[in-house]
Write a structure and sequence with these properties.
- The chain is α+β, with helices and mostly antiparallel strands and 64 residues long.
- Helix content is 30%, strand content 25%.
- It has a single domain, classed as Ribosomal Protein L30, Chain: A (2-Layer Sandwich), CATH 3.30.1390.
- The chain is built from two helices and three strands.
Length: 64
């Protein structure tokens, strides 16, 4: 089971961090985002889901 695939999700940035609180921009950078329409793939964990929940107006889950 050492080579078990971990579940991942794709996250797309749909909103700009301009004129948003600084903590929201830091969360975007922590997810690996920062420019509009960029898509990243992250491990599906509670930490990532929590970050997405704080930015529902800026990010969209594509898969997962």
């Amino acid at each position: 089971m050492a080579n078990a695939k971990k579940k991942t999700i794709k996250i797309k940035q749909i909103g700009s961090p301009i004129r948003r609180p600084a903590y929201q921009e830091k969360i975007l950078i922590g997810l690996g985002l920062g420019k509009m329409h960029r898509v990243v793939e992250r491990e599906d964990s509670a930490e990532v889901r929590g970050a997405i929940a704080k930015l529902p107006h800026l990010v969209q889950v594509i898969e997962g």
